[in-house]
Write a structure and sequence with these properties.
Blueprint: H1 2-11, H2 16-33, H3 43-52, H4 70-89, H5 116-125, H6 131-140, E1 156-157, E2 161-162, E3 174-176, E4 179-183, E5 190-195, H7 198-205, H8 220-234, H9 242-255, H10 258-265, H11 270-277, H12 285-289, E6 292-297, E7 301-306
Antiparallel strand pairs: 1-4, 2-3, 4-5, 6-7
Helix pairs in contact: 1-2, 5-8, 6-7, 6-9, 9-10
Length: 309
Amino acid sequence: LAKQYAESKQSRGRSAGHVKDLKFRLKKFGEKFGKRLVHEISGEQVEKWIESMKLTRGVGADGESQTISVGSQANYWRNLSSFFSYAVANGHAALNPLEGRERPQVPTGEVGILSVDELTRVLSVADERIIPALVLGAFAGLRPEAETILLNWEDINLDKVLDEHKSTKRKPVYKSFGYVNVRRSKNKASVRHVPISENLHDWLIDRKPATGGPVVPVAKNYLAELRQAAAIEAGVEWPHDALRHSFASYHRAAHQSDHLTMTLLGHTNMRTFKVHYCHSLPPGAAESYWNIFPTVRGERKIVPLAAAG
Protein backbone atom coordinates (compact mmCIF):
# COMPACT_ATOMS: atom_id res chain seq x y z
CA LEU A 1 0.00 0.00 0.00
CA ALA A 2 2.88 2.36 0.76
CA LYS A 3 4.31 1.66 -2.69
CA GLN A 4 0.94 2.39 -4.30
CA TYR A 5 0.65 5.62 -2.34
CA ALA A 6 4.09 6.84 -3.46
CA GLU A 7 3.27 5.95 -7.07
CA SER A 8 0.00 7.88 -6.86
CA LYS A 9 1.91 10.98 -5.74
CA GLN A 10 4.36 10.57 -8.61
CA SER A 11 1.57 10.13 -11.18
CA ARG A 12 -0.02 13.37 -9.96
CA GLY A 13 3.09 15.35 -10.83
CA ARG A 14 4.76 15.74 -7.45
CA SER A 15 8.45 16.60 -7.78
CA ALA A 16 11.11 13.90 -7.87
CA GLY A 17 12.58 15.30 -4.65
CA HIS A 18 9.22 15.10 -2.87
CA VAL A 19 8.61 11.50 -4.01
CA LYS A 20 12.13 10.45 -3.03
CA ASP A 21 11.71 11.94 0.44
CA LEU A 22 8.28 10.32 0.81
CA LYS A 23 9.61 6.89 -0.18
CA PHE A 24 12.42 7.22 2.35
CA ARG A 25 10.01 7.98 5.18
CA LEU A 26 7.60 5.21 4.16
CA LYS A 27 10.51 2.76 4.01
CA LYS A 28 11.48 3.61 7.59
CA PHE A 29 7.83 3.24 8.62
CA GLY A 30 7.65 -0.13 6.84
CA GLU A 31 10.70 -1.42 8.70
CA LYS A 32 8.71 -1.03 11.90
CA PHE A 33 5.12 -1.79 10.85
CA GLY A 34 5.47 -3.48 7.43
CA LYS A 35 4.23 -6.91 8.52
CA ARG A 36 0.95 -5.57 9.90
CA LEU A 37 -2.34 -4.67 8.25
CA VAL A 38 -2.98 -0.96 8.04
CA HIS A 39 -6.17 -0.99 10.11
CA GLU A 40 -4.34 -2.74 12.96
CA ILE A 41 -2.01 0.20 13.58
CA SER A 42 -3.11 2.69 16.23
CA GLY A 43 -2.36 6.39 16.42
CA GLU A 44 -0.68 5.90 19.78
CA GLN A 45 1.71 3.34 18.30
CA VAL A 46 2.65 5.64 15.43
CA GLU A 47 3.22 8.59 17.74
CA LYS A 48 5.41 6.54 20.09
CA TRP A 49 7.47 5.36 17.12
CA ILE A 50 7.94 8.93 15.86
CA GLU A 51 8.82 10.10 19.37
CA SER A 52 11.41 7.31 19.73
CA MET A 53 13.26 8.58 16.66
CA LYS A 54 14.08 11.77 18.55
CA LEU A 55 16.35 9.66 20.71
CA THR A 56 18.16 7.68 18.02
CA ARG A 57 18.04 6.89 14.33
CA GLY A 58 20.80 4.30 14.20
CA VAL A 59 24.54 4.76 14.00
CA GLY A 60 26.33 6.78 11.34
CA ALA A 61 29.60 6.07 9.53
CA ASP A 62 31.50 7.91 12.25
CA GLY A 63 30.10 5.62 14.93
CA GLU A 64 27.96 8.35 16.47
CA SER A 65 24.22 7.90 17.06
CA GLN A 66 22.07 9.86 14.62
CA THR A 67 19.08 11.86 15.80
CA ILE A 68 16.36 13.70 13.91
CA SER A 69 14.91 17.11 14.55
CA VAL A 70 11.41 17.98 15.74
CA GLY A 71 10.85 19.33 12.23
CA SER A 72 11.61 15.91 10.77
CA GLN A 73 9.26 14.28 13.29
CA ALA A 74 6.52 16.67 12.17
CA ASN A 75 7.19 15.71 8.55
CA TYR A 76 6.92 12.01 9.38
CA TRP A 77 3.62 12.70 11.13
CA ARG A 78 2.24 14.73 8.21
CA ASN A 79 3.27 12.17 5.57
CA LEU A 80 1.88 9.25 7.55
CA SER A 81 -1.41 11.04 8.22
CA SER A 82 -1.79 11.55 4.46
CA PHE A 83 -0.87 7.89 3.90
CA PHE A 84 -3.57 6.72 6.32
CA SER A 85 -6.12 9.02 4.64
CA TYR A 86 -5.19 7.34 1.35
CA ALA A 87 -5.74 3.96 3.01
CA VAL A 88 -9.22 5.03 4.18
CA ALA A 89 -10.13 6.37 0.74
CA ASN A 90 -9.15 3.04 -0.84
CA GLY A 91 -10.98 0.81 1.64
CA HIS A 92 -8.00 -0.48 3.62
CA ALA A 93 -8.99 1.14 6.91
CA ALA A 94 -12.12 2.64 8.44
CA LEU A 95 -10.36 5.55 10.17
CA ASN A 96 -7.15 7.55 9.99
CA PRO A 97 -5.50 6.74 13.37
CA LEU A 98 -3.75 10.13 13.43
CA GLU A 99 -6.88 12.17 12.79
CA GLY A 100 -7.60 14.43 15.75
CA ARG A 101 -4.19 13.82 17.32
CA GLU A 102 -1.69 16.63 17.85
CA ARG A 103 1.11 16.95 15.32
CA PRO A 104 4.64 17.59 16.73
CA GLN A 105 5.16 21.33 16.97
CA VAL A 106 8.33 22.88 15.59
CA PRO A 107 9.65 25.64 17.88
CA THR A 108 10.02 28.91 15.99
CA GLY A 109 13.01 30.20 17.90
CA GLU A 110 14.31 33.75 18.10
CA VAL A 111 14.94 35.83 15.01
CA GLY A 112 18.55 36.81 14.44
CA ILE A 113 21.39 37.09 11.95
CA LEU A 114 24.58 35.15 11.29
CA SER A 115 28.04 36.56 11.78
CA VAL A 116 30.50 36.43 8.89
CA ASP A 117 32.37 33.62 10.64
CA GLU A 118 29.18 31.62 11.31
CA LEU A 119 27.96 31.82 7.71
CA THR A 120 31.43 30.91 6.45
CA ARG A 121 31.54 27.82 8.68
CA VAL A 122 28.06 26.67 7.64
CA LEU A 123 28.85 27.02 3.93
CA SER A 124 32.07 25.05 4.39
CA VAL A 125 30.25 21.95 5.69
CA ALA A 126 26.81 22.14 4.04
CA ASP A 127 25.56 19.45 1.68
CA GLU A 128 26.41 20.46 -1.89
CA ARG A 129 22.76 20.10 -2.94
CA ILE A 130 21.64 22.98 -0.71
CA ILE A 131 24.54 25.39 -1.27
CA PRO A 132 22.56 27.35 -3.94
CA ALA A 133 19.62 27.73 -1.54
CA LEU A 134 21.87 28.95 1.26
CA VAL A 135 23.74 31.54 -0.81
CA LEU A 136 20.56 32.77 -2.54
CA GLY A 137 19.09 33.35 0.90
CA ALA A 138 22.22 34.94 2.35
CA PHE A 139 23.21 37.12 -0.60
CA ALA A 140 19.90 37.71 -2.44
CA GLY A 141 17.38 37.59 0.42
CA LEU A 142 15.23 34.84 -1.09
CA ARG A 143 13.01 32.73 1.15
CA PRO A 144 14.60 29.22 0.98
CA GLU A 145 11.43 27.16 1.49
CA ALA A 146 9.02 29.50 -0.33
CA GLU A 147 11.01 31.05 -3.20
CA THR A 148 14.33 29.31 -3.83
CA ILE A 149 12.64 25.89 -3.82
CA LEU A 150 10.52 27.03 -6.82
CA LEU A 151 13.45 28.16 -8.95
CA ASN A 152 14.82 26.45 -12.01
CA TRP A 153 18.30 27.34 -13.21
CA GLU A 154 16.64 29.11 -16.16
CA ASP A 155 15.39 31.69 -13.62
CA ILE A 156 18.98 32.63 -12.75
CA ASN A 157 20.80 34.89 -15.21
CA LEU A 158 24.55 34.97 -14.60
CA ASP A 159 25.59 37.21 -17.50
CA LYS A 160 28.00 39.97 -16.51
CA VAL A 161 27.44 43.46 -17.93
CA LEU A 162 30.68 45.39 -18.31
CA ASP A 163 30.84 49.11 -17.53
CA GLU A 164 33.09 50.31 -20.36
CA HIS A 165 33.40 53.82 -18.92
CA LYS A 166 34.99 52.67 -15.66
CA SER A 167 36.82 49.53 -16.75
CA THR A 168 40.49 49.25 -17.56
CA LYS A 169 42.48 46.41 -19.08
CA ARG A 170 43.91 45.60 -15.68
CA LYS A 171 40.67 45.76 -13.70
CA PRO A 172 37.25 45.46 -15.41
CA VAL A 173 34.28 46.92 -13.54
CA TYR A 174 30.89 45.30 -13.92
CA LYS A 175 27.55 47.09 -13.80
CA SER A 176 25.76 43.85 -13.04
CA PHE A 177 26.54 40.22 -12.28
CA GLY A 178 23.09 39.03 -13.36
CA TYR A 179 19.72 38.70 -11.65
CA VAL A 180 17.30 36.17 -10.15
CA ASN A 181 13.78 35.95 -11.54
CA VAL A 182 11.73 35.36 -8.36
CA ARG A 183 8.28 33.78 -8.69
CA ARG A 184 5.42 33.38 -6.25
CA SER A 185 4.65 29.91 -7.67
CA LYS A 186 5.85 27.77 -10.57
CA ASN A 187 2.89 28.75 -12.72
CA LYS A 188 2.80 32.48 -12.01
CA ALA A 189 4.71 35.43 -13.40
CA SER A 190 7.67 37.08 -11.67
CA VAL A 191 7.08 39.10 -8.52
CA ARG A 192 10.51 40.77 -8.57
CA HIS A 193 13.98 40.62 -10.09
CA VAL A 194 16.83 40.54 -7.58
CA PRO A 195 20.32 41.57 -8.75
CA ILE A 196 23.16 39.14 -8.18
CA SER A 197 26.19 40.37 -6.23
CA GLU A 198 29.72 39.52 -7.29
CA ASN A 199 30.24 36.93 -4.56
CA LEU A 200 26.84 35.31 -5.22
CA HIS A 201 27.74 35.10 -8.92
CA ASP A 202 30.90 33.17 -8.03
CA TRP A 203 28.99 30.79 -5.76
CA LEU A 204 26.49 29.96 -8.52
CA ILE A 205 28.47 30.05 -11.77
CA ASP A 206 30.21 26.68 -11.32
CA ARG A 207 27.04 25.04 -10.05
CA LYS A 208 24.69 26.02 -12.88
CA PRO A 209 24.31 22.92 -15.09
CA ALA A 210 24.09 23.21 -18.87
CA THR A 211 20.95 21.06 -18.79
CA GLY A 212 19.03 23.31 -16.36
CA GLY A 213 16.67 21.75 -13.83
CA PRO A 214 15.67 22.71 -10.28
CA VAL A 215 18.08 24.89 -8.32
CA VAL A 216 17.34 22.85 -5.17
CA PRO A 217 17.07 19.13 -6.05
CA VAL A 218 15.59 18.07 -2.69
CA ALA A 219 12.15 18.36 -1.11
CA LYS A 220 11.32 21.44 0.98
CA ASN A 221 11.26 19.59 4.29
CA TYR A 222 14.56 17.83 3.53
CA LEU A 223 16.13 21.21 2.67
CA ALA A 224 15.39 22.40 6.21
CA GLU A 225 16.86 19.21 7.69
CA LEU A 226 20.08 19.47 5.67
CA ARG A 227 20.42 23.13 6.62
CA GLN A 228 20.02 22.29 10.30
CA ALA A 229 22.53 19.44 9.98
CA ALA A 230 25.07 21.87 8.51
CA ALA A 231 24.49 24.32 11.37
CA ILE A 232 25.00 21.58 13.96
CA GLU A 233 28.20 20.36 12.29
CA ALA A 234 29.50 23.94 12.08
CA GLY A 235 28.67 24.57 15.73
CA VAL A 236 26.27 27.40 14.88
CA GLU A 237 23.05 28.17 16.74
CA TRP A 238 20.71 28.85 13.81
CA PRO A 239 18.33 31.78 14.41
CA HIS A 240 14.84 31.73 12.90
CA ASP A 241 14.83 33.03 9.29
CA ALA A 242 18.58 33.65 9.65
CA LEU A 243 19.51 33.95 5.97
CA ARG A 244 16.87 36.50 5.01
CA HIS A 245 17.48 38.62 8.10
CA SER A 246 21.23 38.46 7.51
CA PHE A 247 20.79 39.63 3.93
CA ALA A 248 18.55 42.52 5.00
CA SER A 249 20.92 43.75 7.71
CA TYR A 250 24.17 43.42 5.77
CA HIS A 251 22.69 44.81 2.54
CA ARG A 252 21.23 47.85 4.31
CA ALA A 253 24.54 48.47 6.08
CA ALA A 254 26.45 48.26 2.79
CA HIS A 255 24.11 50.39 0.67
CA GLN A 256 22.59 52.69 3.33
CA SER A 257 19.17 52.54 1.65
CA ASP A 258 16.06 51.27 3.40
CA HIS A 259 13.98 51.47 0.24
CA LEU A 260 16.47 49.55 -1.91
CA THR A 261 16.78 46.71 0.59
CA MET A 262 12.99 46.59 1.10
CA THR A 263 12.44 46.36 -2.66
CA LEU A 264 14.82 43.43 -3.00
CA LEU A 265 13.12 41.64 -0.10
CA GLY A 266 9.68 42.26 -1.61
CA HIS A 267 8.57 44.31 1.43
CA THR A 268 6.08 47.17 1.37
CA ASN A 269 5.80 47.98 5.09
CA MET A 270 8.60 50.22 6.35
CA ARG A 271 7.76 49.66 10.03
CA THR A 272 7.92 45.86 9.68
CA PHE A 273 11.23 46.18 7.87
CA LYS A 274 12.84 48.47 10.45
CA VAL A 275 11.49 46.72 13.54
CA HIS A 276 12.10 43.11 12.49
CA TYR A 277 14.82 43.13 9.82
CA CYS A 278 17.32 45.83 10.77
CA HIS A 279 19.84 44.28 13.15
CA SER A 280 22.82 46.22 14.48
CA LEU A 281 26.21 45.33 13.01
CA PRO A 282 29.78 45.94 14.16
CA PRO A 283 31.90 48.32 12.06
CA GLY A 284 33.30 46.69 8.93
CA ALA A 285 31.02 43.65 9.13
CA ALA A 286 29.09 44.49 5.96
CA GLU A 287 32.23 44.69 3.83
CA SER A 288 33.46 41.31 5.09
CA TYR A 289 30.04 39.74 4.53
CA TRP A 290 29.92 40.68 0.83
CA ASN A 291 33.46 39.36 0.45
CA ILE A 292 32.54 35.77 1.33
CA PHE A 293 33.69 34.06 -1.87
CA PRO A 294 34.10 30.36 -2.70
CA THR A 295 37.64 29.10 -3.17
CA VAL A 296 38.23 25.85 -5.05
CA ARG A 297 40.78 23.56 -3.48
CA GLY A 298 41.73 20.01 -4.42
CA GLU A 299 39.01 17.95 -6.05
CA ARG A 300 36.45 20.74 -6.45
CA LYS A 301 35.93 21.00 -2.70
CA ILE A 302 34.39 24.40 -2.07
CA VAL A 303 35.74 26.24 0.95
CA PRO A 304 34.34 29.73 1.58
CA LEU A 305 36.82 32.36 2.58
CA ALA A 306 35.84 35.83 3.75
CA ALA A 307 38.27 38.19 2.02
CA ALA A 308 39.99 40.74 4.21
CA GLY A 309 38.33 44.13 4.29
